[in-house]
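can u do me a favor
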C-alpha cells in the first residue's frame, strides 16, 4: 500500500517544475556538468540503474546519475563523491539519487546510515536528503550524519559540524547546529530523543579517517576538489612541473605499452551518449577531465587551468573514420579513437549550446584544429570492431592494429549513432535490498532555490486555475447529464399529458419547465407535437401538481448545490491563500533562521579566532620569553665559566709568582747569609792578621796540627810515601 502524499508536496512539485523551467534557456539543451562516482568500497556494493529495479555489482568508474540506486549489504561500506561533496554509506543502507545537477544534490535514504561531508555550498545551491519521516537540507558546509531505522520508523539526524534544517509534513521547520543529535518519529517532526553532544561509533571514526586522508591529498593542491576522483591519483602516480605544459601527472603503475582510453569499455548513457568507463580505478578523473600528452616517451595527464568547478564530459577523445563511413580494419567495420592533446577542443556527440562547449573547453582553442596531434599516430589510436563497440565489449582484449597508411586518409568523424539496444550487459545479480512498498520518501520532489519562489507561486496559481477549470468542466458535464435526465422526465410527462388532457399543452410545458430555456422550447415542441395525437385517458390534476412540485424541488436542489460549490471554491481559494502565506512566512523564517545561524556562527568563529589568536600570542610570548631566558642563562653560564677560568688562571699565576718570590727570597736569604758569612770570615781574617802573634809557650805543638803558615795550604792525606 502506497503511503499518501501530503498536500505540501503539490506545492513542492510545482516549485520543482519552476526550477526546471526558470533556469537559463541553454540549460534545457545541455547535460549537467556534475556527476557522482563510487570512490571507495569495503565489500561489493549493489547498483540498479535509473528505471531498473534489479541490482547488480556496481562498477566504480560508471558515472552515477539521477535515478540510480545503491545498496550496501551487511559488512559493506562505500564512499561516493558528488562534486566536491562526499557521501559515505554504512551497513545495510539503501540510497537513491533523486537529483544531481549543477544546482542540486538530492538523495533518498530509505534505510541505513549516511555520513555527509559538504565542502562547499554556494548561494542558491541545495544539498538535501529525504527519508520516510522528513527532509533534511544543509544550510552551511560541514559534516552530517543521518540514520533511518525502518523497523522503528524513526530518523536520527546528527550535526557533527555545520548547520542544517529538517522539514516535516506540514511545512514544520527545525534548524539544527553543530553537535546536536535529534531522533524524529512520524512526519510531523515529533522528537523521540535529543542530545547536545552526539556520541561516535566505529562508522564515525571510519568516516573521520577517510576525511583525514582526503584532507591530506596531494592531488588537491593541483586540481579542484570538484574534479571527481582526484584523490585516487596520489598513490599511483607522480606530479611534475613541465616548462611548456605546466603541472602534469605521470602514472607509475602502468605497463610500458599502456595507452589512455584503451583499458575499458564504452556504454551509452543519457544524456551524454557514448561514455567511456575505464577499468583502472584511478582513471575516472583522467578520462573525463584534462588532456593527455607524451613526455619522454611516457604518457602524462595534463589537467590544465581548470575552473573552480570543472565540467564533466563523457570522454575527451576524437573518433576517426573514413570518408564514406567507419574504418575497415581486417575486413571488419571498426570504430577508432584517440585521446585529445593539450589545447585541442572537444566536440560533443550530442546537441549542446556553445556556452556548454566553451565551459568544457575552458582555456583552450575554441575551434577544432585542422589536424590533431595523435590523429596519425598508430601507437595512440585504439580501434575495435563496430559490433564489439556497440555491445560494450572491453577494448583491451579486442583492439585492432591500425596501419599507418590507413590513417593517411582517415578523418575525424562524430561518434557512432545510438545502438538499437542501449542497455549494457550486466554482471550476475548482486545482493538485493529488502523491498517494502510502504516505505516512501517524505519528500518526493526537489524544493527549488528561494530566488525561484515567485515563479513557483505563479505556477501554483496556474495549476489552481487549471484545476478549477477541470472541476468546472466536470460540473458542467454533470449538469448536462442532469439536464438530459430532466429532459427525458419532461418527455415522459408530456407523453402522459398527451394521453390524459390534449386540450392543455401549455400547462404540461409549464410542469416540465427546466432552468434552461432551450430545453423548455424543445419540451414544448415535443408536447405540442404530442398534443395532436389521440388521448386515451385523462391525467389526474393532483398527479400533475405533484410532478410540477418535484420539478421545482429539483430546481431548488440544483441552486443549493451550485451555492455550496461556490462556497467550497471560496473556502478552497482562501485555504490556498493561507497556505501560500504560511509558505512565504515559513520560507522567510527559515531564511532569517539561516541568516541568524550564520551570523551567530560567524560571531562564534570570530570569537574563537580571537581566542585562538590570543592563545597563539600568549604561546608565542611564552616561547619568546623562554628563548630569552635560555639565552640569558646561557650567557650567564658562559660568563661564569669564563670568570672561573680567569680566577683559576689568576690563582695559578699568583701561586707561580709566590713560588718565584719564595725561591727568590730563599736565594736572597742564602745570598745574604753567604755575604754575611763571607764578611764574617773576612772580618775574622782581618782581625786575625791584625792581632799580634805570640807563641804559647805552654802549648806543645801537635804533630798533626799545621803551622800557622801552613794553615792556608791544603793538606793531603798521608800515604805510604809520607
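np, heres the sequence
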Amino acid at each position: 500500500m502506497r503511503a499518501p502524499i501530503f498536500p505540501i508536496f503539490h506545492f513542492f512539485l510545482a516549485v520543482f517544475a519552476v526550477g526546471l523551467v526558470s533556469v537559463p534557456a541553454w540549460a534545457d539543451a545541455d547535460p549537467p556538468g556534475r556527476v557522482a562516482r563510487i570512490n571507495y568500497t569495503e565489500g561489493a556494493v549493489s547498483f540498479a540503474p535509473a528505471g531498473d529495479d534489479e541490482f547488480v555489482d556496481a562498477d566504480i568508474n560508471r558515472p552515477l546519475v539521477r535515478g540510480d540506486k545503491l545498496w550496501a549489504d551487511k559488512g559493506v561500506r562505500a564512499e561516493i563523491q558528488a562534486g566536491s561533496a562526499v557521501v559515505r554509506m554504512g551497513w545495510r543502507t539503501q540510497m537513491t539519487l533523486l537529483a544531481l545537477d549543477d544546482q542540486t544534490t538530492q538523495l533518498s535514504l530509505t534505510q541505513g546510515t549516511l555520513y555527509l561531508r559538504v565542502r562547499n555550498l554556494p548561494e542558491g545551491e541545495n544539498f538535501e536528503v529525504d527519508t520516510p519521516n522528513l527532509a533534511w537540507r544543509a544550510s552551511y558546509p560541514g559534516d552530517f550524519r543521518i540514520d533511518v531505522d525502518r523497523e522503528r520508523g524513526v530518523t536520527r539526524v546528527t550535526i557533527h559540524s555545520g548547520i542544517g534544517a529538517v522539514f516535516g509534513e506540514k511545512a514544520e521547520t527545525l534548524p539544527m547546529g553543530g553537535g546536536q543529535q535529534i531522533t524524529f518519529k512520524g512526519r510531523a517532526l515529533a522528537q523521540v530523543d535529543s542530545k547536545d553532544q552526539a556520541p561516535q561509533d566505529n562508522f564515525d571514526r571510519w568516516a573521520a579517517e577517510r576525511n583525514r586522508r582526503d584532507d591530506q591529498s596531494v592531488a588537491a593542491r593541483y586540481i579542484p576538489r570538484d574534479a571527481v576522483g582526484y584523490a585516487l591519483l596520489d598513490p599511483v602516480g607522480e606530479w611534475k612541473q613541465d616548462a611548456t605544459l605546466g603541472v602534469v601527472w605521470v602514472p607509475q603503475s602502468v605497463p610500458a605499452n599502456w595507452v589512455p582510453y584503451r583499458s575499458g569499455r564504452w556504454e551509452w548513457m543519457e544524456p551524454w551518449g557514448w561514455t567511456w568507463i575505464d577499468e583502472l580505478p584511478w582513471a575516472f578523473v583522467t578520462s573525463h577531465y584534462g588532456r593527455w600528452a607524451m613526455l619522454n616517451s611516457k604518457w602524462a595527464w595534463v589537467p590544465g587551468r581548470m575552473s573552480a568547478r570543472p565540467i564533466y564530459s563523457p570522454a575527451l577523445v576524437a573518433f576517426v573514420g573514413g570518408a564514406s563511413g567507419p574504418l575497415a580494419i581486417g575486413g571488419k567495420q571498426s570504430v577508432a579513437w584517440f585521446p585529445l592533446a593539450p589545447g585541442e577542443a572537444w566536440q560533443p556527440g550530442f546537441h549542446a549550446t556553445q556556452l556548454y562547449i566553451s565551459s568544457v573547453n575552458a582555456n583552450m582553442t575554441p575551434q577544432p584544429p585542422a589536424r590533431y596531434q595523435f590523429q596519425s599516430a598508430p601507437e595512440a589510436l585504439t580501434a575495435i570492431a563496430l559490433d564489439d563497440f556497440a555491445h560494450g565489449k572491453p577494448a583491451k582484449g579486442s583492439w585492432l592494429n591500425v596501419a599507418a597508411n590507413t590513417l593517411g586518409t582517415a578523418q575525424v568523424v562524430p561518434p557512432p549513432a545510438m545502438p538499437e539496444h542501449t542497455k549494457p550487459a550486466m554482471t550476475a545479480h548482486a545482493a538485493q535490498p529488502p523491498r517494502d512498498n510502504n516505505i516512501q520518501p517524505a519528500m518526493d520532489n526537489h524544493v527549488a532555490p528561494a530566488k525561484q519562489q515567485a515563479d513557483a507561486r505563479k505556477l501554483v496559481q496556474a495549476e489552481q486555475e487549471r484545476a478549477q477549470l477541470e472541476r468546472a468542466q466536470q460540473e458542467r458535464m454533470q449538469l448536462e447529464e442532469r439536464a438530459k435526465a430532466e429532459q427525458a422526465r419532461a418527455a415522459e410527462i408530456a407523453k402522459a399529458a398527451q394521453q390524459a388532457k390534449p386540450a392543455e399543452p401549455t400547462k404540461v410545458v409549464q410542469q416540465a419547465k427546466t432552468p434552461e430555456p432551450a430545453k423548455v422550447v424543445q419540451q414544448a415542441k415535443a408536447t405540442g407535437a404530442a398534443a395532436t395525437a389521440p388521448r386515451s385517458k385523462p391525467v389526474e390534476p393532483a398527479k400533475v401538481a405533484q410532478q410540477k412540485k418535484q420539478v421545482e424541488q429539483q430546481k431548488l436542489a440544483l441552486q443549493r448545490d451550485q451555492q455550496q460549490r461556490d462556497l467550497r471554491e471560496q473556502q478552497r481559494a482562501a485555504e490556498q491563500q493561507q497556505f501560500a502565506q504560511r509558505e512565504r512566512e515559513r520560507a522567510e523564517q527559515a531564511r532569517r533562521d539561516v541568516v541568524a545561524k550564520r551570523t551567530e556562527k560567524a560571531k562564534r568563529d570570530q570569537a574563537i579566532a580571537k581566542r585562538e589568536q590570543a592563545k597563539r600570542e600568549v604561546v608565542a610570548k611564552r616561547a619568546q620569553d623562554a628563548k630569552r631566558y635560555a639565552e640569558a642563562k646561557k650567557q650567564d653560564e658562559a660568563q661564569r665559566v669564563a670568570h672561573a677560568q680567569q680566577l683559576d688562571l689568576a690563582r695559578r699565576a699568583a701561586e707561580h709568582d709566590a713560588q718565584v718570590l719564595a725561591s727568590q727570597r730563599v736565594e736572597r736569604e742564602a745570598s745574604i747569609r753567604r755575604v754575611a758569612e763571607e764578611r764574617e770570615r773576612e772580618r775574622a781574617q782581618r782581625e786575625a792578621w791584625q792581632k799580634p802573634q805570640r807563641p804559647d809557650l805552654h802549648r806543645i805543638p801537635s804533630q798533626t796540627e799545621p803551622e800557622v803558615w801552613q794553615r792556608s795550604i791544603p793538606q793531603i792525606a798521608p800515604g805510604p810515601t809520607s
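The chain has a mean pLDDT of 79. hope that helps!!
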